[in-house]
Write a structure and sequence with these properties.
156 residues; mainly alpha; 3-stranded antiparallel β-sheet; 1 helix; 8% strand; elongated
Length: 156
């Protein structure tokens, strides 16, 4: 004769083990999904930051001789009144993919006060800390996304 109390206890332990295993697997899957999302946002931040950097460079270099930085980011999407060609540096203002807002930290030129770069306002720690192209070598080892600064430095 088989003891049914022992079988019920064993079945209960198996069920607990399966629930624990399923919980661990689910947590790992969520963790992987969140990491994948953060990496995608980092890639988007790299794209947007370089787009702003390029637009600031275009604005700065448009007028020969009279080099100025834009007074704000909105100037980059408006037709440039400094020339007859009415060039536009950007089609639209981008959101910061990390924060989801258009609140960028503006990096100003100390001499003129014009915008020479942008960075995220997020103080989160980035996943990517190296492996950047040479043009973005200033991002290596950054501790926060705020330290990912996309600045146009004119050659002197």
């Amino acid at each position: 004769m088989v003891n049914t109390k022992n079988q019920q206890g064993f079945t209960y332990l198996i069920a607990l083990f399966m629930v624990a295993t399923l919980s661990i697997v689910t947590l790992r899957a969520m963790e992987n999904s969140l990491t994948k999302d953060r990496r995608a946002k980092e890639e988007q931040l790299l794209f947007v930051g370089q787009a702003y950097q390029q637009a600031i460079m275009t604005y700065y270099q448009t007028i020969p001789g009279s080099k100025t930085f834009p007074p704000d980011l909105a100037t980059l999407v408006e037709p440039d009144t400094r020339t007859s060609t009415r060039h536009v540096a950007l089609r639209k203002l981008y959101f910061d993919p990390i924060t989801g807002t258009q609140d960028w930290l503006l990096i100003k030129d100390p001499k003129t006060g014009g915008v020479m770069g942008v960075s995220s306002t997020s103080l989160q720690q980035p996943i990517k800390v190296n492996g950047f192209p040479p043009t973005l070598s200033n991002l290596i080892g950054a501790k926060t996304y705020q330290q990912w600064q996309f600045v146009y430095q004119p050659s002197t």
